[in-house]
C-alpha cells in the first residue's frame, strides 16, 4: 500500500516538473544524467531541432542562391545570343565575299592588274612612284571587277546552260541581278574616280572606255559573230596602255610594245580555250570560230599565225630603246616556244595538244612581262625632252652673257687711263653657266 502511494506521488512530481520546465532538452537532461556528457547526442538533437524551425539567415542564403542561379542563366543566354550573332555575321560576310570574288572573276582581274602595273613601270623614269603604282593598280582592279560583273549580268541565261559556268553566283541564285548591277556600278565609278584623282584624266578615260567596250560591245557580240575574239583582244591590250598613260601622262610609240604583245598573245590563248570548250560554247549559244571549224584546222592556223606575229615584238622593244638587246634574244626564244606548241596543234589537232598550247600561253605572258621589266632602259623620249629643253636655253643664255660682258667692259674701264681693269675672281667664275667658254685675259 505504501508502495502504491509512493508511485502516485512520484508521478505527480514528474508532471509538476514538466509543467514548470517546458524545454524538452532540460527534461531529457533530468531523465538521463549521462546526456550532458554525450556531445554527439546533443549535436544531433540540436541539428534536428534547428532544421525543423528555419531561421532568418537560412532564408537569406536561399534567396542569394536563387539570385545567383538566375544571374548565371541570364549570362549564359546572353553569351549564346552574342556568339550566335557573331556566327551569323561571319557567315553573311563569307557568303557575300565569295559571291563578289566569283562575280568579279578575281583571278582574271588580277592578271589585268599585273599588265597595268607592268605598263606603269615601263612608262616611269628612273624613279618609280610607288604610291602612284598602287593607286593605278587599285583603280584598274575596280574597273576590271565592274566589267566582269556586268558581263555575268548579261549572260545569266547562257551561263546557266554551260557546265563550266552554271555554278556562278547569278545562275545558281546566290545573288540577284539587281544586287550584281549595284555592285558593278559602285566599283566601276569608284575605280574610274580613283584613276582620275590620283593618276590623270587619260588613264581614267582609257579605263572607262575599256569597261564600256567589254561590257556593252564584246559581251553581246559573243552571241553574234566569231569576230568577238579579236574585239576581246583589243580589250585585253588596253590595260598596259592605261598603266603607261598613268605614269607618263601621254601615249608614245614605245608604249605600244606591251599592248601589241598582249593583243597577239590573246589569240592563241583563246583559240586553245575555244577548242577545248567548244561543246560548252555551243550549249551556251556563243559564236566561236571553233564551232564552225569541225576539223580544227582553221582554229589552229589562226593561233599559229598570231604566234608568228609575236616574233618582231622583242626586236622592236630593243630598236625603240625600251629594253636592252638581251630582251630581243630572250623574247625570240619565248615566242619560238609558244609557236612550237601552236605548230604541234596545227599538225595534230587533238585535245592534248590544244591544252599544251593553252598552258604554254599561260606561262608565256608572265615571263615576257618579267623580261620587259628586268631589261628595261630609261625612257629615251624623256631624256630627249630634257636635252631639247636644255639646248633651247643655251642661245638665250649665251646672248645674255655676251651683252652682260659688254656692259661689264664699259664699266671696268679706268676713267683716267681708258684701259680695262682686270675683273676680280668672282666675275671670272663660270660655275653658274658651265656650258659657256672660259674667259680669256691674253690682252692684259
Automatic annotation (TrEMBL):
Broad class of where this protein is predominantly found: membrane
Which Pfam family, an example, fits this chain?
Answer: UbiA
Membrane topology for this entry?
Multi-pass membrane protein
Q: Does the keyword Repressor apply?
A: no
One Gene Ontology cellular component annotation? membrane
Q: Mind telling me which residue stretches traverse the membrane in this protein?
A: 108-124, 130-154, 175-195, 201-218, 230-248, 260-278, 299-318, 324-346, 358-378
Q: Does the keyword Iron apply?
A: no
> What GO molecular function terms would the record report?
protoheme IX farnesyltransferase activity
- InterPro entries per record: Protohaem_IX_farnesylTrfase, UbiA_prenyltransferase, UbiA_sf
Alphabetical keyword list: Heme biosynthesis, Membrane, Transferase, Transmembrane, Transmembrane helix
The record's subcellular location field reads: Membrane
- List, in alphabetical order, the GO biological process terms annotated in this UniProt record: heme A biosynthetic process
| Name this protein carries in UniProt | Heme O synthase
Organism per entry: Chenopodium quinoa (Quinoa)
Its taxonomic placement starts with: Eukaryota, Viridiplantae, Streptophyta, Embryophyta, Tracheophyta
Amino acid at each position: 500500500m505504501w508502495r502504491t502511494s509512493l508511485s502516485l506521488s512520484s508521478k505527480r512530481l514528474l508532471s509538476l516538473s514538466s509543467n514548470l520546465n517546458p524545454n524538452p532538452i532540460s527534461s531529457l537532461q533530468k531523465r538521463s544524467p549521462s546526456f550532458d556528457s554525450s556531445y554527439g547526442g546533443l549535436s544531433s538533437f540540436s541539428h534536428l531541432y534547428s532544421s525543423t524551425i528555419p531561421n532568418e539567415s537560412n532564408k537569406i542564403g536561399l534567396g542569394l542562391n536563387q539570385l545567383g542561379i538566375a544571374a548565371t542563366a541570364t549570362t549564359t543566354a546572353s553569351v549564346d545570343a552574342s556568339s550566335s550573332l557573331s556566327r551569323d555575321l561571319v557567315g553573311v560576310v563569307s557568303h557575300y565575299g565569295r559571291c563578289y570574288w566569283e562575280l568579279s572573276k578575281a583571278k582574271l582581274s588580277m592578271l589585268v592588274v599585273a599588265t597595268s602595273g607592268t605598263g606603269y613601270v615601263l612608262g616611269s623614269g628612273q624613279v618609280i612612284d610607288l604610291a602612284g603604282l598602287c593607286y593605278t593598280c587599285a583603280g584598274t582592279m575596280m574597273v576590271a571587277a565592274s566589267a566582269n560583273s556586268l558581263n555575268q549580268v548579261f549572260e545569266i541565261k547562257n551561263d546557266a546552260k554551260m557546265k563550266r559556268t552554271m555554278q556562278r553566283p547569278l545562275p545558281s541564285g546566290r545573288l540577284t541581278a539587281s544586287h550584281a548591277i549595284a555592285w558593278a556600278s559602285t566599283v566601276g565609278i569608284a575605280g574610274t574616280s580613283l584613276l582620275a584623282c590620283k593618276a590623270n584624266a587619260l588613264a581614267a578615260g582609257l579605263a572607262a572606255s575599256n569597261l564600256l567596250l567589254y561590257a556593252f560591245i564584246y559581251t553581246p557580240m559573243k552571241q553574234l559573230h566569231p569576230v568577238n575574239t579579236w574585239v576581246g583582244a583589243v580589250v585585253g591590250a588596253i590595260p598596259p596602255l592605261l598603266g603607261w598613260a598613268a605614269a607618263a601622262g601621254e601615249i608614245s610609240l614605245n608604249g605600244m610594245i606591251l599592248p601589241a604583245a598582249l593583243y597577239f598573245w590573246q589569240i592563241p590563248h583563246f583559240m586553245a580555250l575555244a577548242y577545248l570548250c567548244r561543246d560548252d560554247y555551243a550549249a551556251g549559244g556563243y559564236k566561236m570560230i571553233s564551232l564552225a571549224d569541225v576539223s580544227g584546222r582553221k582554229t589552229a592556223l589562226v593561233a599559229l599565225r598570231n604566234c608568228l606575229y609575236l616574233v618582231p615584238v622583242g626586236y622592236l622593244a630593243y630598236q625603240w630603246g625600251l629594253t636592252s638587246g638581251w630582251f630581243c634574244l630572250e623574247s625570240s626564244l619565248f615566242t619560238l616556244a609558244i609557236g612550237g606548241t601552236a605548230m604541234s596543234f596545227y599538225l595534230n589537232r587533238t585535245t592534248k595538244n590544244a591544252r599544251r598550247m593553252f598552258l604554254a600561253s599561260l606561262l608565256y605572258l608572265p615571263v615576257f612581262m618579267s623580261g620587259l621589266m628586268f631589261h628595261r632602259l630609261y625612257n629615251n623620249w624623256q631624256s630627249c625632252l630634257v636635252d631639247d629643253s636644255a639646248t633651247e636655253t643655251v642661245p638665250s643664255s649665251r646672248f645674255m652673257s655676251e651683252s652682260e660682258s659688254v656692259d661689264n667692259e664699259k664699266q671696268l674701264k679706268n676713267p683716267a687711263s681708258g684701259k680695262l681693269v682686270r675683273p676680280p675672281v668672282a666675275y671670272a667664275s663660270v660655275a653658274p653657266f658651265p656650258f659657256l667658254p672660259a674667259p680669256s685675259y691674253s690682252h692684259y
